[in-house]
Batch of 2 targets.
Target 1
Amino acid sequence: MNILVVGLNHKTADIEVREKIAFDGHKLSDAFSIMSTLSEIKENIILSTCNRVEVYANVKDADSGAECIKKFLSDFHNIPRETLDKSLYAYDGRNAIRHIYRVASSLDSMVVGEPQILGQLKDAFEFALKRKSTGVFLNRLMKKTLSVAKRIRTETKIAESAVSISFAAVELAKKIFEDLHTKSFMLMGAGEMAELAAGHLINNGVKDVLVTNRTYERAEEIAKEFNGKAVKFDEFLQELVHTDIVICSTGAPHYILLKEQMHKIMKQRKNRPVFIIDISVPRNIDPEINNLDNVYLYNVDDLKGIVNTNIQERSREAEKAEKIVDEEIEAFLKWQKSLSAVPTIVALRDKAEAIRKDELEKTLHKLSGLGEKDVNAIEALTNSIVNKLVHFPTTALKSEAEDKDAMIDIVNRIFGLSMEAGGQSDKSEDAIKEKDNELE
Amino acid sequence: MPVTNIHEAASFFPWCILILFFLLEYRYKIGLLGSFIMPVVFVLMLSSSVFPREIKEINPLLKSYWLIIHTILAFLGDASFAMAFGIGIMYLLQERYLKSKHLSGLFLRLPNLQVLDELNYRLISLGFPLLTLAIITGAIWASTALGKYWRWDPKEVWSLVTWLIYALVLHLRLTLGWRGRKAAVLSIIGFILVIFTFFGVNLILKGFHAFV
């Protein structure tokens, strides 16, 4: 049993390589079909996102397994090995587990703490489950991985604060207003960042959406996109009286909203709070407006400042997360180690059972005149002798001793158990499952 | 009623605040609220311990069930003003964070402005009628015990001033839309008056309310 990770990500590979190696659509299904024929690989999961492609596998031998997967990736995608080898990384054992844990908890992501990767990993795992390409070992590892990611999410603030300008805008709105569903929103002008932020606000449930633009047709276009209402540009001041959140990005070369105007509007609003985001450069809204009571004006630099603070906060939290990862690796390795004795225990039991059956049959042959009751009694007797004898080596093997490997070796030798190296019969797979349940 | 001397009153008052705090905490789940209310409670409890504890027989002239009604109303009213005070401070803090764009520390844990402003309004709308009734029942009690509704004793005067402030808070909010920061500041001033009426009048200006 060797856990192996082979893959590449946004840090090691350019977009040109990543898009070639991505498993999109039917490719993923084909890949599973081919992987299932590779004898080196016992279990596998393929994770393919726009930032990373990784294969998680349980292999017989780490080196030849890695080689096998690399060759497969190169052949499957028709990419020369030299190109691929520059970007690919391969980890096994402890490092592989660490890598998987870090990926799932988005410590390895472009934006630390982003939530998508965990969902993508879940999907990849579910797909592998459907294709029956995983077994006890990877299932256990994946289950553990998901819980580690969850633990990190709840115990650290790694995903807490917004790290994009548009999310920061929504978060601020939620600190000013109790319920966005009762608030109306106006988008003034257009632009990628403004529309992105508008989209987030709308997703968070703002009630009415108004759109205004110097060209009315453009306003209508955008309004259609957001399911809102277009407003003539020279009427926006009247609309401000009943608008709670404003995003402004008109590209005007001067202020289009002055303090005196806003002062009047606030009176008409009976001082109900307004949140204004001025994304335009040069600024479109008189910064003095922020000094009015119940008006909260943020410009693009303010939002950038918030995002930067939040990113720093996340990297501090990431350090805590790394500690959790280390802890959890130990827990998994302990479980893995406890499995090393399983094949020996199974072989020992099988051997004892075989001897018992053999001897019982011989003896029953020789004896005659026994009733059904007597046969049953002898059967029970042999059973309990064997069980009691086997019990001691079994508990010793199950215990977590320092010299466990030596003990396994000794038991194998004194009982004459022939173990195929690293081999795993169906029976020991069942036994692992049993043990797995025991542990949970 | 444990309100016949200032030691008892100063212990009973924080108890009323705590009852209200737990109700509010249960309903709104504002974890941080406690950090702003507990200091008030603590200071009140501390102050109660410096006053003499002996219980004197109450002036038989004043003995009446009006005593119970009047004091309960007054204490509950003052307790709501105390909560409004705590909420008002939280509002001012959160507003300062948002205006200065310095978004860290407590900012993340304080609730949103709207909830704080609404809570402030609700607590004052609860406290105001209680205070009004306390003044009315006090007057009735005074008329039965002392033969006069209103005696212009310092406690009465300062209660009236407090009543006027809170009447102003509600009036300005409803007519001119004085919400947010202004409402928060007024509710803080109001509570300072409450405290002055509570202790100051007893200690500095003596009157019939000075627990005889």
Note: The radius of gyration of chain A is 32 Å.
Target 2
Amino acid sequence: MSSVQAHLPALQVVLPLLGSLFAGFVRREATGFALALAVSWTAAVISAVLLWQVLQGGPISYHLGGWPPPWGIEYRIDLLNAFVLLLVAWVGAVTMPFARRSVAFEVDEGRQGWFYCMYLLCLTGLLGITVTGDAFNAFVFLEISSLSTYVLIALGRDRRALLSAFQYLIMGTIGATFYVIGVGFLYLVTGSLNMVDIAQRLGSVPLEQTRAVAVAVAFLTVGISLKLALFPLHVWLPNAYAYAPSLATAFLAGTATKVAVYLLVRFFAVILAGSPAFGPLQLADVLLVLSIAAMFVASAIAVFETNLKRMLAYSSLAQIGYITLGIGIANQAGLTGAIVHLFNHAIMKAALFLVLGAVFYRIGSVKLHDLAGIGPKMPLTMAAFAVAGFALIGTPGTSGFVSKWYLAVGAFGHSGWLLVLLIVASSLIAVVYVGRVVEVVWFRPPSPLAETAREVPPSMLVPILVLAGATIWFGIDTRLTADLAGKAAAMLLAAVR
Amino acid sequence: MQAVQGFLDHYNYVVTIFLMVAGLYIVIARGNMVKKLIGLSIFQTSVYLLYIEPGKILGGTAPIIDPAFTVYSNPLPHVLILTAIVVGVATLALGLALVVRIHEAYGTIEEDEIFEKDGDT
């Protein structure tokens, strides 16, 4: 047992990888689903054990193949990535039971086996990025997750899914290539790929080479920002989310952009810990401006969007703006807010997209006017939508309030009332677009399509209710989210100072 | 004179950066999806050069320890780029496969014609 426990960091990644291979060989829908379910649940258990181990004994360093770092690839798990691992694995585990009916309904027969194969590969990549302590290894996992994501999106039935997948492929590859260029410059300057080692070696970089480091930071920031869809590098996201199969959208909205955010935080921490001289780069200011633009522009577009999947996609862009805002603020409360919001937003957005998946399963549309009056027909599902929607706004008693509270406190400490007012104002726009849907769904006479709707079966309903319940739970009990995020933020800031 | 000297000393980097920018330009400027993918490929290939060039040290030998040699070239960039090439090939293959499917669905691979056909997006 203890020998298995020692290899948990590797198993976290290897199990989904093997599962994906197997699902690819078998290519049967039922086997694929069983595998995906078993693997996601195992991965969720492993992530919980890893977090527990980190809490008990501090950071875990796992040497792949027994090669010690910095020569070999190191999997390094501290509080921050243990937390992100937990998020990714559990979003996957909770949404998976939803997949069976949803995928059978939305993906062509004969391709459903591939869906599970690609889903597991994507899970491998996302967990890999999070767990690894090696900059180049992270690139490989980034591409594993991205390539499988393109396929997941292209599996949608609408022909526009193909187009969105292609556009995402172009943007995503440019992003990943920028990332490699950035890592290449860091390697040229420091001669190392291990992130901890890079941070240490950056401290002794001669002054005339700091320009190369600045170039590396620029490439890394732009590359990762493309992946996390920071405004204005977001154009791939709305269509990709809108035309992908519902389960893929829910899973990706909950995990893919969040892992990219994690990578950004990690690199900022590495670079800043290594050479504090990067304060004058004013990266944080750029991040603040873009985040605020995202919060307002994307929210405003969401208000006028009638395809609800696209509406939620734009809302995601705005919420990513809140997370990057917290990173830009970069004080204890702001960073805590960013990490908590990364977690909370993943859960609420997964819940919202699952609700749309359930609606699509019943009436075959996610257009706002088709959903009129569907509330009383699917009461539990639409109640979950309302709860998660209120969390999106940041209503007290929901998880969204907790994260926005920390962000507001951080913003106040950073530059006073102005930023706080901006956060509140952009949340008010969320009231409009969430409120509009709630009003149409509950208080309008049913549309012809909504007449025929009824509650979805338990395998789809339970994941929705669990996620919606979690948004309330984490709004009241913040021991898991805010306390851990606070510790992780303190750890990052201590390393930087 | 110094500028010329600097240019000649680093001509390999100049070539790399030219390929990088040219590739990126093709991706942005062309509406034909296959041409876009070719541009993307050139862009990625330039990064292979960026990694491999500094790995070579003038007068360095293969990294096999031998008392007769003291200067070795760095083998790690080659290994990294082998991985990156695999990633690049996979991306290109997937991109071309998507283009085939797009051609089946729309009857064209010109981006502006496709946007016209989809009207509402």
Note: Chain B has a mean pLDDT of 88.
